[in-house]
């Protein structure tokens, strides 16, 4: 068993990133996917995560929202997410604690995962009404605003099956934003889209980055997009951060050999 | 005696029997749906105290004969001081038995809902109960309607067994009429046709309608 006493119960104001991964290890059985990850994301920062498949990049997001970890502690907004306090010590979080600790985190998926039996508007209202306990009237107003923001107010009464992939992903972004998250996770949100509709989704994301003080972690294969909008790019390889830095530095002047190989392989594929 | 005369004489008794069959069928169907929801969800539960009883229930009721279960309820339970009216025993045995099959349909229907739907509901911090009732079950219901159509027709045909504990259903009347007239072809032929018409022209169209209705309601049209 890991000694949890080395981890603070809460992060101090002077050193409080929006997200902190501290010595985080994630294993599936005997396979170690992420090994002793240390990563801080500042409030309002836009971080892109790139890397070859199997490098653990999607796992970074899934640990924040969907999966448990086998070592280390993750903090969100200064409070532990994966662990809770019990008699002044950190212990493994209960299911309920974990679910509530994840409320400030929102997520969008590669395959949208809209609820097919609900309209676009109902998809957006579901969280605010069922989880935050908002009145239907307020939730409707908030959801309509967000559908307006993603340019789909005229589609609000359509079911997902009547929407294109790009439209579905924009609804999914609105649905995640309706919970007013502090951190938004974007997991390959353009990978399942036809090339001609990728632009409409990336436009929406660009709007979010400039207009809101939202912390965003984005896993992507679109290097041009990552370069354009990120504050920082992390290159993952073999379950570790191989290299990270400002987009211009990382893309134009990569220091590590694996980064260079990966970037040139991506370039030649383009 | 021509068949027309046979029908004129015994038609009303067949219709009385059909009425009893229809009521047994409806009550058993409602019970089967409730049982299958409870047991299907139970079998999927991560809590062993819920899962094991559900597994035991399903194995027992699927693994033994419906007729034996019917007799057990009717003849054996009274020995332990538990006596049900024969009408109640009839639909109870049917509903409990078919509910065990239904439980497997519920389980399969729920498991067929894509993993991403659970993840999306979880990412909105929905509680386990709300995830199930608001997101997963409505979709699972649509998945399992076609096999339910099969099961419901099995249930209808199964109602004929209640004649053996003297519930005066369609089969019971057919046997009685056969016993007094010895017109076997007419007696059982008429019952056969009535079961077929009930299944083919009432139950099946209803299930088709339900599928279409649910599909529209769930926005997949």
UniProtKB/TrEMBL annotation, chain A:
UniProt cross-references to PANTHER family, sorted A to Z: AMINO ACID IMPORT ATP-BINDING PROTEIN, GLUTAMATE_ASPARTATE IMPORT ATP-BINDING PROTEIN GLTL
Protein name (database record): Amino acid ABC transporter ATP-binding protein, PAAT family
Membrane topology (UniProt): Peripheral membrane protein
Compartments where found: Cell membrane
Domain ABC transporter: 19-263
GO molecular function: ATP binding
Higher taxonomy: Bacteria, Pseudomonadati, Pseudomonadota, Alphaproteobacteria, Hyphomicrobiales
InterPro entries: AAA+_ATPase, ABC_ATPase_HisP-typ, ABC_transporter-like_ATP-bd, ABC_transporter-like_CS, Ectoine_EhuA, MetN_ABC_transporter-like, P-loop_NTPase
Assigned protein family: Belongs to the ABC transporter superfamily.
Record key words, sorted: Amino-acid transport, ATP-binding, Cell membrane, Membrane, Nucleotide-binding, Transport
UniProtKB/TrEMBL annotation, chain B:
Residues in ABC transmembrane type-1 domain copies: 14-203
Keywords: Amino-acid transport, Cell membrane, Membrane, Transmembrane, Transmembrane helix, Transport
Any single Pfam family the record assigns to this protein: BPD_transp_1
Topology relative to the membrane: Multi-pass membrane protein
Ranges annotated as spanning the membrane: 20-42, 54-75, 87-106, 140-167, 187-210
Cellular compartments annotated: Cell inner membrane; Cell membrane
SUPFAM superfamilies (alphabetical): MetI-like
Source domain of life: Bacteria
Repeat keyword on record: no
Family: Belongs to the binding-protein-dependent transport system permease family. HisMQ subfamily.
Name of the featured protein: Amino acid ABC transporter membrane protein 1, PAAT family
Species name: Roseibium denhamense
């Amino acid at each position: 068993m890991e000694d949890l006493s080395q981890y603070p119960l809460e992060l101090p104001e002077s050193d409080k990133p929006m997200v902190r991964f501290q010595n985080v290890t994630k294993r599936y059985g005997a396979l170690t996917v992420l090994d002793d990850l240390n990563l801080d994301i500042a409030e309002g920062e836009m971080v892109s995560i790139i890397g070859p498949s199997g490098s653990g990049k999607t796992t970074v997001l899934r640990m924040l929202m969907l999966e448990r970890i086998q070592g280390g502690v993750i903090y969100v907004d200064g409070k532990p997410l994966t662990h809770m306090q019990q008699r002044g010590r950190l212990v493994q979080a209960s299911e309920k604690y974990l679910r509530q600790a994840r409320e400030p985190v929102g997520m969008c998926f590669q395959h949208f995962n809209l609820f097919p039996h609900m309209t676009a508007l109902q998809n957006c209202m579901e969280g605010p009404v069922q989880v935050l306990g908002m009145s239907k009237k307020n939730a409707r107003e908030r959801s309509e605003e967000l559908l307006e923001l993603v340019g789909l107010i005229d589609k609000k009464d359509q079911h997902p099956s009547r929407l294109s992939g790009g439209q579905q992903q924009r609804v999914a972004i609105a649905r995640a934003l309706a919970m007013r998250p502090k951190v938004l996770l974007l997991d390959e949100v353009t990978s399942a889209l036809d090339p001609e509709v990728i632009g409409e989704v990336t436009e929406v994301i660009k709007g979010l980055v400039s207009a809101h003080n939202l912390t965003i972690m984005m896993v992507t294969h679109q290097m041009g997009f990552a370069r354009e909008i990120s504050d920082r790019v992390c290159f993952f390889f073999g379950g570790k951060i191989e290299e990270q830095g400002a987009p211009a530095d990382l893309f134009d002047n990569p220091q590590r050999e694996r980064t260079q190989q990966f970037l040139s392989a991506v370039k030649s594929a383009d | 005696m021509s068949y027309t005369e046979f029908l004129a004489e015994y038609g009303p008794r067949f219709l009385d029997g059909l009425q009893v069959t229809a009521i047994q069928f409806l009550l058993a169907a409602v019970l089967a749906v409730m049982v299958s929801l409870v047991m299907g969800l139970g079998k999927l539960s991560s809590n062993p105290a819920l899962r094991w009883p559900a597994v035991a229930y399903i194995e027992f009721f699927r693994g033994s004969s419906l007729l034996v279960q019917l007799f057990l309820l009717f003849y054996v339970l009274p020995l332990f001081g538990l006596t049900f009216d024969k009408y109640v025993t009839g639909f109870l045995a049917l509903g409990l038995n078919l509910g065990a099959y239904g439980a497997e349909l519920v389980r399969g229907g729920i498991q067929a809902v894509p993993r991403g739907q659970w993840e999306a509901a979880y990412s909105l911090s929905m509680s386990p109960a709300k995830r199930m009732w608001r997101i997963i079950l409505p979709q699972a219901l649509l998945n399992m309607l076609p096999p339910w159509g099969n099961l419901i027709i099995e249930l209808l045909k199964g109602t004929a067994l209640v004649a053996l504990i003297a519930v005066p259903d369609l089969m019971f009347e057919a046997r009685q009429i056969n016993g007094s007239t010895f017109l076997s072809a007419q007696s059982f032929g008429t019952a056969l046709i009535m079961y077929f018409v009930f299944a083919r022209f009432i139950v099946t169209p209803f299930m088709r309608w339900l599928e279409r209705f649910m599909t529209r309601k769930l926005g997949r049209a």
